[in-house]
Specification:
With 398 residues, the chain is an alpha/beta fold. 50% of the residues lie in helices and 12% in strands. The chain is built from 18 helices and ten strands.
Length: 398
């Protein structure tokens, strides 16, 4: 009979569980025990906790219905109608051409979600969450646009296993390589959505950063020019440049001309993956671009920006970011799945973006505080005034 060699490794290479793992496993079994749930539901001391967790869980399950209530209110223009004057269900049924019995379900659901509120004489008025929906066209446009995402999330397993089949992926008019195979009409639709939903980020940028410290600002991936136009109007001494794919840059040029800003804003068409960026700017802005792309593409863009900047120039990056250190935010699931359906992009932490900036050559990287980090967080990086000299071995190896 063969004997086991004492020097041979054990069959399993996994380390034994730590005391924390053993304690967590015991807690998991305890928390999932039906007997514990019955006891906690009956106890005066713990009943409130059971009810609170049940409400949270039900909110997760009902979340998809909540989004459809919001979409229904927008498409039927219910919020617009009650802004004109409080309306009864019958009045809203006539205005929306919807059966009153069915519409009543939507109206009462909207009251529960604070999109509407009940007024006197059985009328409905605008609720506290309905007001911002009406106040910002970008919110309404994104609610309509999210209907495409809802279709992709109908089968989440299919999306996880094959993101390339997502309808959202086909909505975007560019590919990861930076080509623009889509027709001009699709480019215009995409660019209009981005311009409409960008207003929140524009307000954050203007309030958070001293743009008057610069002479020329280049916006990379600038879309139809909403950001550079707003920046030009807020800072009349600035000269501005916009760089985007040729069909989008052409739309931006038309927008800039309509704004009467053509003398101060120049538009440039090209691919930031393949073509050089315009020179002359001492500040480059990258607004809601990096999270659309994979790390390798983001690194290419950052290196192109670094090469286009003079010594001492700066990069200001703005986009939604995940929080590091195990502190996920309620908004993270939306961006995780939106970017998965869209293509190769992903939600990154500020630390992950800073690492890409350092790899591209930037230094003095810092976070810029802003009022509403839900819409975007800001990172500022600089190109050192004196680049490090190459040592002899590096020169000889080249």
């Amino acid at each position: 009979m063969a004997t086991l060699n004492a020097t041979e490794p054990p069959l399993s290479q996994e380390p034994p569980p730590s005391w924390r793992d053993r304690l967590a496993a015991r807690a998991d079994r305890w928390m999932t025990s039906p007997a514990l749930n019955r006891w906690a539901s009956a106890s005066v001391l713990t009943r409130w906790l059971v009810r609170w967790r049940s409400a949270q869980l039900f909110g997760l399950m009902a979340g998809f219905v909540h989004t459809q209530v919001l979409l229904g209110c927008v498409r039927l223009r219910v919020l617009d109608h009650v802004l004109e004057a409080p309306r009864t269900a019958d009045e809203l049924a006539r205005l929306t051409r919807t059966p009153a019995a069915s519409l009543l379900r939507l109206l009462d659901s909207a009251v529960a979600l604070r999109l509407l509120e009940r007024r006197g004489q059985a009328r409905y008025g605008l609720g506290s969450l309905g007001a911002p929906v009406l106040a910002h066209a970008g919110i309404r446009d994104m609610i309509e646009h999210n209907a495409v995402l809802f279709e992709d999330l109908r089968d989440p397993l299919a999306l996880l296993r094959d993101p390339a089949q997502a309808r959202m992926h086909r909505y975007w008019p560019y590919t990861e390589e930076g080509a623009m195979p889509a027709p001009q009409e699709q480019c215009a639709r995409y660019s209009a959505l981005m311009a409409s939903s960008q207003r929140f980020v524009i307000d954050e940028l203007l309030a958070a950063y001293p743009f008057h410290d610069h002479r020329v600002v280049l916006d990379v991936g600038g879309g139809m020019g909403g950001w550079v136009s707003a920046l030009a109007q807020a800072h009349p001494a600035l000269r501005l440049q916009l760089f985007d794919l040729p069909p989008v840059a052409a739309l931006a040029q038309q927008h800039v001309q309509r704004q009467g800003l053509a003398e101060r804003i120049s538009t440039h068409g090209g691919s930031f993956v393949h073509d050089p960026l315009p020179r002359g700017a001492d500040l480059v802005t990258l607004v809601r671009v990096a999270h659309d792309h994979a790390d390798a593409t983001v690194l290419q863009v950052l290196r192109a920006i670094f090469g286009a900047l003079p010594l001492g120039g700066a990069l200001l990056l703005a986009e939604p970011m995940a929080e590091a250190g195990g502190s996920p935010q309620p908004s993270d699931p939306y961006f995780h799945f939106y970017l998965l359906a869209m293509g190769a992009g992903r939600l990154r932490t500020p630390e992950q973006l800073m690492a890409l900036m350092r790899e591209a050559g930037f230094s003095h990287i810092e976070r810029v505080p802003n009022r509403q980090p839900l819409h975007a967080q800001l990172l500022l990086a600089r190109k050192a005034r004196c680049l490090p000299a190459l040592d002899a071995d590096s020169v000889n190896s080249d």
